[in-house]
Amino acid sequence: MHVERVVREYFAALGDELPTDLYALILKEVELPLLTVILEQTRGNQTKCAQILGLNRGTLRKKLKTYNLMS
């Protein structure tokens, strides 16, 4: 899996240094492109987008506002 390989490479590059807040870092890198692609695929239909992601529509709207994706 591509994501697993990238995470392994990230840790290898760090050497003995331990990362902090890795979950937030990865989520930030993945969430925006994921939301963008799914919104494109659903032609901006937030209800369909929320269903595909398994999110509550209100949660989706908060994420869209966070990333300035509200239309």
UniProtKB/TrEMBL annotation:
Coiled coil: none annotated. GO terms for biological process: regulation of DNA-templated transcription. One of its GO terms (molecular function) is sequence-specific DNA binding. Residues 27-67 form the DNA binding HTH domain. InterPro entries: Fis_DNA-bd, Homeodomain-like_sf, HTH_Fis, Trans_regulatory_Fis. Gene3D superfamilies: Homeodomain-like. Keywords: DNA-binding. The keyword ATP-binding does not apply. Belongs to the transcriptional regulatory Fis family. This is Putative Fis-like DNA-binding protein.
